[in-house]
């Protein structure tokens, strides 16, 4: 294997793809394959248990930590029962270049979330179902640490319109915003986001945001942004109103 050209070694790694077990086996084979698999193996690691994630963080070296770009824990079993703040903090101390962070349903305190947003050049961020996330998180952030964000998922958090306005003001590249189940946002914040981010925002999920009500005083119906409304919502209300009008007209006739 030492005698093979670098291009052939890279081709072997390419055909392995994202099979982490095989990549890990190759990584331990010899120096040539160790170097060839390092970036692929650590770029976007996947985990099948909380223990595996903890071991991964504990064993990161400066060399391997520099390769990590994506941490996605949304499929990690039992993450909602495991205290992960300590290990995310350890990851913060070791890795500098993470740009994708999905902590959906993880038990992590708001301070650790804030430090992660401050340090890493995030393009994707999910704090979905973090009930401890509120306006204090975004109000305390430096103004320049949100400028790389492209996609944000804050569904089922306790943010209000204040956080939406901060995001709109500080995320010039924002193209997707997930707010499903955010009970404290209103049409005021939603309209502000759609106007402020009209050059970049393409998709907005406000399913089950029961305090968001479109009407003649806002421009939500006229925005170019694809808005995913709640199933309970406005089309049914409009249809019911139309039916009532039809009934009244029939009675008058």
Automatic annotation (TrEMBL):
SUPFAM superfamilies: RNI-like (SSF52047). InterPro entries: F-box_LRR-repeat, Leu-rich_rpt_Cys-con_subtyp, LRR_dom_sf. SMART domains: LRR_CC. One of its GO terms (cellular component) is cytoplasm. Signal peptide: none annotated. It comes from the Eukaryota. This is F-box domain-containing protein. It comes from Lichtheimia ornata.
